[in-house]
Amino acid sequence: MNKLKIKTIFLLTCFALLLSIISLFVFRTSVASTIWNNFHIEAVATLLNQNDAELFFNIGNYYFGEGAYDLSKSEKYYRKALAVDSALERLHYQIARLHFINNNLYEARSEINKELELYPDFRRSYYVRGLINGYDNKLEEAESDFVEFLEWKKDSWAGYNDLAWVYFRMGDYKKVLATADSGLKYYPDSVWLLNSKGVALLNLGQKREAKDVLVKALFIAENMDVNEWGVAYPGNNPEIYSDGLRAMRESIKRNLELIDGVES
Known about the structure:
Shape: elongated
Structural class: mainly alpha
CATH topology of one domain: Serine Threonine Protein Phosphatase 5, Tetratricopeptide repeat
Radius of gyration: 26 Å
CATH class of one domain: Mainly Alpha
Number of strands: 0
Largest sheet: none
Distance between the termini: 104 Å
Order of helices and strands: HHHHHHHHHHHHHHH
């Protein structure tokens, strides 16, 4: 091979390499997203694109139960996204949920309020804020949030159930019953709503009606698998699903024992 051919091959190789580098630089966002979406290799994806809030957000979601469960990693990538674009849609919402799961209620409320300020039309934020306020014993605020949420999503069994939970903590069992019944119109076999209704009837002195409802709730709970229970609690650690289902069954059984104790 003469020197001219060698030189030509060398130049072509260099040119091809240069084109590859330029292409990688120009299309690094799409390449990084492809690597993450298809292979979940976060080190490579984030090395290729170190300034992509959407990529960081998606990785955070992945570790927040959408593929794996690692809250420390989820928070790490949400923080990275926040540093790049603090107004990214749903970012403050997800951070609020993360804080709520970790029982950091002050931080959770601050984040969900930021989401509502940025995106007031995203009404699901009211549901999350209702949970935060409920667990923080701000019951009137929680009631208002759940009512606001249900005006937007009238068929949410979780919205009715958590509003009923707020009324139960207020001691207003008539409202617990009415709210549970409203939800049962949409989901007649919801074990959570049936349990709420049974407890309301029990506290209102309607023991026979309460027993009928709770027997149905227990039957459904006994035939429910852990994944069905877990779907109702997005963001929670899958490792607690079996304990949560067991606790729900035991709660219904205890309520039935209270009725049997009164009747005997």
